[in-house]
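Worked problem 6 (solution included).
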Amino acid sequence: MNHSTESHLPAPATNTMGPISPELMHRMDAYWRAANYLSVGQIYLYDNPLLRRPLELSDVKPLIVGHWGTTPGQNFIYVHLNRVIKKFDLDMFYVAGPGHGGPALVGNTYLEGTYSEIYPDVSQDEAGLKKLFTQFSFPGGISSHVAPTTPGSIHEGGELGYSLSHAFGAAFDNPGLIVACVIGDGEAETGPLATSWQSTKFLNPVSDGAVLPILHLNGYKISNPTVLARIEEEELGQFLRGCGWEPRFAEGDDPEEMHQLMAGALDEAIETIRHIQDTARTTGDTTRPRWPMIVLKSPKGWTGPKVVDGLRIEGTFRSHQVPLLVDADHPAHLGQLESWMRSYKPEELFDADGRLLPDLAELAPDGDRRMGANPHTNGGVLLRDLHMPDFRVHAVTVPAPGAVDAQDTLVLGEFLRDVVKLNADRRNFRIFGPDETLSNFLGAIFEETSRQWDAKTLASDEFLAPAGRVLDSMLSEHQCEGWLEGYLLTGRHGLFNCYEAFIHIVDSMFNQHAKWLKVTSQLPWRRNIASLNYLLTSHVWQQDHNGFTHQDPGFLDHVVNKKADVVRVYLPPDANCLLSVMDHCLRSQHYVNVVVAGKRAMPQWLTMEAAAVHCTEGIGIWEWASNDEGGEPDVVLACCGDTPTLEVLAAVSILRTHLPSLKIRVVNVVDLMKLEPPTEHPHGLSDRDYDSLFTTDKHIIFAFHGYPWLIHRLTYRRANRNLHVRGYNEEGTITTAFDMRVQNRLDRFHLVQDVIDRLPQLGATGDYLKQKMRDKLVEHSHYIDIHGQDLPEIRNWTWTANRP
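Solution. The predicted structure is:
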């Protein structure tokens, strides 16, 4: 090997014609070879990173884990994006949709210098190369995905389908940004990705940036061909044009030809984006354009082993993961691995110290223009606090507990309207939802903004405009979640409002985002981002008109599975508590906040001052509803959620009337995680504080918004085992609101019976009251069958303590 620091690349061919010169093409090809070399090294090598000596089995990792198939194509794309960034001075970063392309992004950020700046121990020399190779898919190292540890990444890609929606979320309100989104052809078969093609109808060329999709057709998934690679180019083009794109194709396997084709396609795409934006920003014409995209068709496992053990590898599914097993059982493969790696000619790429040669290194952009250093990919760097209105201005006047009714989300809508207004010039807050903002009674928002919509409009449409702070005009929870995540990850704030039952559609997306937050919180160089805020409404207890299909509070169970440092769950009992909770959530960083609130008229319990105190504490005794002050209660009635709170207080009213000597303590829970010990969640109550609320031995009748076993799970370590939880039990149909509670035994009559059953000392008095409750349940059933609505005493009920 020649150890000079000068370039020793063979002279370039002189007859190559195309948008880039033969000399530049030759250097770019060398840079691509360097990226491919680093990628293979990451997958295979433990030592001997520059092949200074013949490869030995001890140089190879004992367990080889990685994905080669997508990697060379992604390396090819990265090299070409570097060129257009420099040529056009672009603010651009790279979203890697093909999930297991980790070697490509790690390798390229290493070549451009970003990786070593963040991780100085992975230095740009031979020792750093060894560290780079060894850490990949190795215990204590980094994963095979484009993980949070990878500079320049906002999208891990461990689960496929979200890359394009993340890219659009990043582009909203970033007029100078272009997000290059590489989409694998396997990924393109997922539902979320298929939906994401429609995002062009929501991108404003005046105020938003641009997304440049690069559909990477390498033909195969794990062991099957991909659909889009097996249809005719004409059909594929028709499909993409039908989604609003203007595709440019680059297809082949000859590197020289492909470099020219890709360079031409990218130049045309960037020039088209510039023209679209310049025209719209000069004339104000926001007529929806056909945005450019690129279809790159190249062999899977390009430049890798062509045949192994008589089986074709390059261009087949067999190159998807590790194309060549190298271990004691396959000794002949060691030489084949060495030949493969030497085919990239590392002696022409790296100097004596193991550093990329200067004339190749200068192909990368400088400073923040490097895709691994783009500030948008570390969104907390750009994050600015929201300007927040005083939530108390929107308080419901509550002269006495239960004296007035209000619609909680209707009240919240006015607060959110003011959040939009105060941040209009900053353009850093948006509201997302799958066409449910009006249905969830947040319509006041539209007094201040419109829905962003860049497709055709009709005179009968409402609240549609080319620019707006609301993105809810697409009926896809996946799309809204992906947009919001991309928006948050690039340094902005947002809220997702959704029907409670259907937020499950994004269970897996929430999983991935929560994992991202958990990992990035442990990386000093990653800055905190704004919290992912969910408002779940039209909830299980307010779906009597929609029935069983719309009834599922189980997202709470799913959320609680995640790391305690990340998740927060709030169930405010009334509008004033909802205002206080939402103000807190919108100010918070690096959490997933789940807020469950109703939209129907419900009794209001707390003044604004009392609500702010109660929500700050997260849990507390409602003294005004209790009568045990100065002594021990006979029973604790706990409630969490607006409907359970209503039914508990109605049950307390019955008990106080018929059993005036019974000592009752009412505990209301807003912050669900208060129930866990502090060793399990930072919000958790100490055992002493928990016992001071719930006692150590009294029966606790707990009315909960969701599935009962979640409360048992959160409290199983507590001393008091006399816990009896009522909640949703998968019963429901088209019925009345109160009958929904009856069917799930959450209603006041069943709660009263439960108290009596737990307190045998009540004797005959309790027996007679229990009979009254049974009679009431029969009366209720007969009444709704005849009248189709709840009993007047249910509909017109108001709280009274009925103090003796």
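Discussion: The first strand starts at residue 91 and ends at 96.
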